[in-house]
Design brief:
The structure is a homodimer of 580-residue chains.
Chain A lengths: L1 H11 L3 H5 L2 E10 L6 E5 L1 H15 L2 E5 L4 E3 L2 E9 L3 E10 L2 E12 L24 H11 L8 E4 L3 H12 L4 E4 L7 H4 L31 H14 L4 E2 L2 E9 L4 E8 L2 E7 L1 E4 L21 E4 L13 E5 L3 H12 L3 E6 L4 E4 H9 L5 H5 L4 H9 L3 H18 L1 H9 L13 H8 L3 E4 L2 H6 L4 E4 L3 E4 L3 E4 L4 E3 L2 E4 L7 H7 L2 H7 L32 E3 L4 H19 L10
Helix pairs in contact in A: 5-18, 9-12, 16-17
């Protein structure tokens, strides 16, 4: 491939401007920890040139090779490429338009000399020859007994949900001593504690964890207890070191020593653990937002946050008000309604609704489905395809999809609107994924509750907010009084950054700034434009502090890049972080 | 492909002799439950003709199609084929020599209209729309609580080892109500209870269970506690209905009602369970053979069977005699020796020894390895390739392999012989797999103990048997007195058929005859020639009684054929069993 030869030659000759000239003016180079040692999108030829000028000498890229023949569609040529740097092997997805690069993804795959213990490199299991001493299981028990007590972990992960577990599994494969501290008694308990009817809203093909895919008879939309059990199994099979029933109470960084002192309460016992790196994997859903409502302390009924709501079967014949109109609010309303409660949803502002089946058909099927698998698009490849779309373009690329979805489900949306439901498709019509990336919410993936709103089984008050509460009712901003035996605040969660303030200090939290969000200057995602999720899986302004989170897809895919950054630091591989 | 067209045409026209004429005189057609509704090898053109003459009208084979291009090697053309019968879909592996069929495998894949709930047919998980009622986990709990109490299982499996679990998983995918009764408190306890150093002697690629392969970081030779944990996980993830801590005490068949009454003791409570089919999956290793040795009751030391031996670390500095020279004897001796015991192995007759690494390189690598996977040979395909080799040919095909192994490890074998160890390679030089198939033992897969015998760390007395025991010693047939603090009888297990005698009756056991073995007329495998493993995974002389067992490979692969036979009976699909 001519482009690749020219690019390779320019890089080899250290000629940044020749290399940059192979990119279109309006091109995008997204780098995942190969050239930049961070996660960064260079937007436009000038940024590409500047980055290359700065890093090329150290990176020493080479061995660019097509993995398979390039393909062409609609004037765009796509090519899968492998390459190396001085310290790593990487994968690349290149898109050419008119002979110039339009989009370019470079993603680290592994560090040379530190490959994972999988496939041909899997452990032997039985010892070579015969030796005395503890067997596999005894050695495993010993490791778990010693870490955090006799031995310091290199990485401490706060939070043992899917994010923490996936990252710990990757670090295990890289021989990075890692301890998870998790407040629950068992992995998966976060899921177990939720309302009974909860199922994942994303399909199985999108949800695999690293190394150990779900079996082929796994349901499409995993019920909550089944995902909980899988996480518990995953911890065991991956042999992760996890302290359960353990709360992290405080962490402080010793700049001199370059290490964290993490204070935890383990089964009620106060302990200190020392580590080089601290990962907050407490999740976007760790910090419930419970609004302060005037008069809420005089309310005589039950009131709780959606995260505390156990299910609807105890509320038959009773009056329930659910404040909020996103995923949890819908799930909780429908569960209450089918269980015979008299339930009213209070919608303050518009919500993006997309039917699960339509999303599957139009958005996910090309990448995450049996069809995709048949077409050779494995989960790993699908993840890279998603990652190859720069966030600036992503909104534009999603708009036609949502135009199609609106047309396909026009009658459905009409019925919802007729019931008074306030709909949107994102401020710029770019749909659900962008809402997820910009603000982590503002949508409902419909699995049936919308029909119940349309036909009145779930009552709706929209375009109103909650003014106050009385002994037995919720008073809305339009003066409506909603009598209530139970009020559920499905009012979401606060930012991951709040964890830094709570666990470390306000100073550190301020230094880091917000987590998640792209800087799109839309609701709940203030500018300036970042072009990447803020502070996620990449170096932050606080040395040794990292953030990890997101749905199963993000936990799976980006845990790789975070794990390799940590491993490189442990091995003292130079990791000069490029910042424009 | 011309041969296939002619074959298809002959079958379509019901012309058995035209079809049989496409087979060489010395050809083999191995059928797994498609034409014969049993597991049977037709040897030679006449047997092929007779079978077709008998069954062709009912089977209605059709739609023979190459799955991929045929390949040629050394004058043999091989082709993968799919086909249908009136009731099923099948896979076939054909080998042609000089234009005629040399070997032909026909294997059932699925019953039409009763396909498994996997891949595109996997369950949805979340309900379509919203409905009240129990969630996934509550429904699962209810099913488990009711089976055997409120509802009769269609199949009852005695034994929850890898065999019982794999079969139950397959039956679950076919909606066949199935109850496992297992004497242990947890799945995997059979493995947990064994000596500490035990690891699987077969590599990971050979050992996968159905639907849920081991993850890619799983060790090559699985340590016993890890396989135990995996079985426990497998039971949960596959949602199998299993009564633990339950012993089957008696089973009787009511010919009139066509059902079994199975008496069990569940946590000490006596219960009766009714089922249509009873599967004995108690394993080849269920019934320890403890020899009656003169004077053994006056022996003052410890004496136990290898299955009861916990590991060597308690026997430092003590004298141990291990009776036997097969796998367990070697493992136990080496474990004792490295733990500082003074251990002597007593070898009565010759043993086949093959080094694990050499077996991997020469025997398994082409089919079960990362290399095989890279070459497109999945586990499923490898299983069919193994199954396509008729047992009559198998011995011949294995001989050159063992000639190669003997040459490759000549120096190793020389050292063993020099230490007095009696070696064989099977009576006809056909090696380990044939010993396994003929008699289920008589070999050691070396992972290091042979070196310890060669260099004297494990003492050896060979070509002797045990004459008697005194208070503190074992007296051998040559008069040698071996002082002993512990005697371990690594004397193997008795036949699976013994379970039928114990659980049902001697009459039924006699009617059925021996289980396992080919009828090769070699040691422990009396004739007449059967050409298949006796009574395994196929109809027996006792209606509703089935045997299932073998290593992880056999448990995985043949559970499919047994499950489909049971499903066909449940659905009242005609299953006329062909017997020559």
């Amino acid at each position: 491939m001519r482009w690749l030869q020219q690019f390779d030659k320019a890089l080899e000759e250290g000629d940044s401007s020749a290399a940059a000239n192979l990119f279109a003016e309006d091109s995008y180079w997204r780098d995942l920890v190969t050239f930049t040692w961070t996660i960064k999108t260079m937007e436009g030829r000038d940024q590409v040139a500047a980055m290359l000028e700065s890093v090329l000498g150290g990176v020493k890229p080479s061995s660019w090779q097509l993995i398979e023949s390039a393909t062409e569609e609609g004037g765009i040529i796509s090519a899968w490429i492998e390459f190396e740097t001085a310290t790593a092997r990487g994968l690349s997805l290149l898109r050419l338009r008119n002979g110039l690069c339009w989009t370019f993804l470079t993603a680290i795959k592994e560090l040379k000399g530190h490959e994972e213990w999988i496939g041909r490199r899997r452990p032997r299991g039985a010892p070579v020859g015969i030796s005395a001493g503890p067997n596999w299981s005894a050695r495993r028990d010993q490791e778990l007994a010693e870490i955090g007590i006799e031995t310091d972990p290199y990485v401490l992960i706060v939070g043992g949900g899917q994010g923490g577990l996936a990252l710990a599994a990757r670090l295990k494969q890289l021989d990075v001593p890692t301890l998870i501290v998790d407040k629950f008694a068992r992995s998966g308990d976060q899921w177990r504690s939720r309302y009974e009817s909860l199922c994942l809203h994303d399909p199985v093909w999108y949800d695999h964890l690293p190394y150990m895919p779900f079996p082929e008879n796994w349901p499409v939309y995993t019920p909550k207890d089944k995902i909980a059990e899988w996480l518990e199994i995953y911890e065991k099979v991956m042999e992760l070191d996890c302290w359960h029933s353990t709360t992290c109470t405080h962490a402080s960084y010793d700049q001199q020593a370059g290490r964290w002192t993490v204070e935890v309460s383990r089964n009620g016992e106060e302990r200190k653990v020392f580590c080089k790196h601290l990962v907050l994997a407490t999740g976007a859903s760790g910090f419930p937002n419970l609004p302060a409502i005037e008069g809420m302390d005089r309310f005589q009924g039950q009131l709780w946050h959606s995260s505390q709501h156990p299910g609807g079967d105890a509320w038959r014949g009773q009056k329930v008000v659910v404040i909020g109109a996103n995923n949890s609010a819908h799930d909780i309303c429908s569960d209450l309604a089918v269980n015979g409660a008299d339930v009213t949803m209070v919608q303050r502002s518009s919500t993006l609704v997309a039917r699960s089946s339509t999303l599957m058909e139009f958005a996910l099927k090309p990448l995450y489905s049996e069809d995709a698998l048949d077409a050779g698009i494995t989960t790993e490849r699908a993840d890279l395809i998603v990652a190859s779309l720069p966030y600036r373009l992503f909104a534009e690329l999603q708009k036609p999809l949502y135009a199609k979805i609106r047309e396909h489900d026009a009658e459905f949306y009409e019925r919802l609107r007729a019931a008074g439901f306030m709909l949107d498709f994102g401020e710029d019509g770019s749909g659900l994924m962008l809402k997820y990336l910009r603000r982590g919410g503002g949508y409902y993936i419909d699995v049936g509750a919308s029909d119940m709103i349309a036909d009145g089984r779930i009552k709706l008050k929209s375009n109103v907010s909650v003014r106050e509460m009385t002994e037995n009712a919720v008073i809305l901003s339009d003066g409506t009084e909603l009598p209530a035996d139970l009020v559920v605040c499905a009012t979401g969660y606060s930012s991951m950054g709040d964890w830094a303030a709570q666990l470390i200090s306000k100073e550190v939290a301020d230094k880091i700034g917000p987590c998640w969000g792209l800087g799109s200057d839309t609701t709940n995602d203030p500018g300036p434009w970042e072009g990447e999720l803020r502070n996620m899986w990449k170096p932050t302004a606080q040395e040794g502090l990292w953030f990890h989170g997101g749905n199963l897809h993000y936990s799976r895919h980006y845990s790789l890049y975070l794990a390799l950054q940590l491993k490189a630091r442990m091995e003292k591989i130079p990791t000069p972080v490029y910042s424009a």
